[in-house]
Specification:
With 281 residues, this protein is an all-alpha fold. The chain has one domain. The protein is 72% helix and 0% strand. It has 15 helices and no strands. It is globular.
């Protein structure tokens, strides 16, 4: 993202799914008779599923709608795992074969100093503008800072392997323990699952449409296939971009180009979550 700042626009487009799902949650009670409408807090928590970012979904639901936390977490992580099934049909429907063949050059080299300044800059800007998103962004940037400092190899190995595995296990156990029958076995669960799919699909659509616009503006220098990475399903969405790009042009390598929008989307979804928490929390 640092090498190609315009890729941040794709991540912003990927936030479309959040607002579509949130609007759908607010309208569902008026469309389907007998269904109790979701509150603003619940609708905002459901919408964040569209960020395709598990930690952001958990954090937002924990603050705004604790009763919906188990099902929102399950929906968010389920759709992240289903990226290779959900996104390719949307990508093919919204792009032409000529666009899929667009070859992108290797990204520019980014120095360690630039990465460190970026981590500090984003964190300070978020704390100043959207304090409620500060903890999410700070943790993301702390991980980058530890990695890029060059003097904490032992911590990097621990964070990437043992600690990550322990935390993943704890999340699964704790969410599973709160997924009681009265929370899960009701019609709202099915509605949330459906709205999560809508959010994910529209997030993918938003990212691809922005990528197509950038392709036109740059004279064909941006492959619209990286638009699916406007959702922050890291790194699965980037792998889908790479695989599909290789199908149409074996000389094309989109993996790192797609990681830019994913990082942008991760930051963007955290900021959107912070705004929603500030407004409704």
């Amino acid at each position: 993202m640092i090498a190609s700042p315009k890729s941040a626009l794709i991540g912003i487009g990927g936030q479309l799914g959040i607002f579509v799902a949130m609007g759908g949650a607010l309208l569902i009670g008026h469309i389907i008779p007998g269904i109790e409408p979701f509150t603003l807090k619940e609708a905002a928590s459901i919408g964040i599923i569209g960020s395709s970012d598990g930690p952001t979904s958990i954090y937002t639901a924990g603050v705004l709608a604790p009763d919906l936390l188990p099902i929102i977490t399950i929906a968010a992580y389920s759709y992240m795992a289903l990226v290779p099934l959900i996104q390719p049909p949307i990508m093919r429907a919204l792009t032409t074969e000529k666009e899929r063949r667009v070859e992108m050059p290797l990204p520019k080299k980014v120095t360690r100093r630039q990465k460190i300044f970026f981590a500090f800059g984003i964190t300070i800007a978020t704390l100043a503008l959207v304090p409620a998103a500060g903890s999410l962004i700070a943790m993301l940037m702390l991980g980058n800072l530890i990695r890029e400092s060059g003097v904490t190899e032992r911590y990097v190995r621990t964070l990437q392997n043992h600690l990550l595995n322990v935390l993943t296990l704890l999340i699964g156990v704790s969410i599973g323990a709160t997924a009681t029958a009265e929370r899960i076995l009701n019609i709202k669960t099915l509605i949330i699952i459906c709205l999560g799919l809508v959010a994910f699909a529209f997030g993918t659509v938003g990212g691809i449409l922005v990528a197509k616009l950038l392709c036109k503006i740059t004279g064909g220098k941006v492959n619209p296939l990286i638009g699916n990475s406007g959702v922050s399903a890291m790194p699965m969405a980037a792998r889908v971009s790479q695989k599909m790009g290789q199908e149409y042009n074996s000389q094309n390598h989109l993996l790192m180009h797609a990681m830019g929008p994913i990082v942008s989307s991760t930051i963007g979804s955290a900021v959107v979550a912070g705004i929603l928490i500030t407004l409704f929390g």
